[in-house]
Write a structure and sequence with these properties.
The chain has nine helices and nine strands. The protein has two domains: 77 residues; 142 residues, no CATH class. The strands form two sheets. It has a five-stranded antiparallel beta sheet. A four-stranded antiparallel beta sheet has the order 6-8-1-9, covered by helices on one side. It is 40% helix and 27% strand. A hairpin with a 5-residue loop joins strand 2 and strand 3. With 227 residues, it is α+β, with helices and mostly antiparallel strands.
């Protein structure tokens, strides 16, 4: 895995910058989902998903903030209506709960397309809102995947988002990465050693190694997996 990242990192960085990203917002006809039913039943309360992600192609987990209402009543309502959703205290004082849905029909299309979910999203009784950051070329696949789950797309919007080199890395990381690529450290075979590169950029080999690990983590980390 280490060798693979070293060989491909330059191409990945270029793809990051060149890729046409869009923020896709879908309002979905899912009145029978636990999210819509919860918002409809407890209409004097407010439910906001602060973060979430698919755990598998059928499970979804995240954090939800609840303003007003009784969480014990919420748990009983979900259980009595056959929803396989669990709620656990995450931050009791802030009324934030960790939830896990073991039968989440949208998990499959989300894991099958390289994307990143955008939060927060407030629950609504009339539709379920999905906000996804992904490449423009993947939009049709995402929508097709959602519709293949038997879900109607009621409304859709796309907002283009550009990515610049300076958005991806800190100033210090850019100062390290640019000569690293130019001098062939990521070429195969490598054109410069770590020790020689450290002399060129003016830091010790151990410090350079730390910087490169952070850069590689940024490129290949989960927070940028949609590139």
């Amino acid at each position: 895995m280490r060798i693979k990242s070293l060989v491909n990192i330059e191409d990945v960085v270029v793809d990051m910058i060149d890729n046409n990203l869009v923020l896709l917002t879908l309002d979905l006809g899912m009145e029978n989902s636990w999210e819509c039913q919860l918002a409809d039943k407890f209409d004097n309360s407010s439910f906001v998903i602060e973060n979430g992600h698919p755990v598998s192609d059928s499970s979804f987990a995240g954090l939800m903030r609840m303003e007003g209402g009784d969480v014990s009543k919420v748990r009983r309502f979900l259980k009595s209506n056959g929803h396989s959703v669990t709620f656990r205290d995450f931050d009791r004082e802030a009324r934030v709960f960790h939830f896990r849905d073991e039968n989440h029909i949208l998990s499959a299309p989300l894991v099958n397309v390289d994307c990143s979910l955008e939060w927060p999203v407030r629950l609504n009784g009339d539709f379920k809102r999905l906000r996804v950051l992904l490449g423009e070329d993947d939009v049709d696949d995402m929508i097709a995947g959602v519709e293949d789950c038997g879900v109607d797309v009621l409304k859709m919007s796309k907002i283009r988002r550009g990515v610049e080199f300076g958005d991806l890395f800190t100033l210090k990381q850019r100062e390290i990465l640019e000569p690293t690529i130019e001098l062939g450290y990521y070429d195969f075979p490598r054109r410069i050693s770590l020790n020689d590169l450290s002399k060129q950029v003016g830091v010790s080999p151990s410090t350079l190694c730390v910087h490169l690990q952070k850069i590689e983590s940024r490129v290949f980390g989960s927070d940028l997996r949609f590139f």
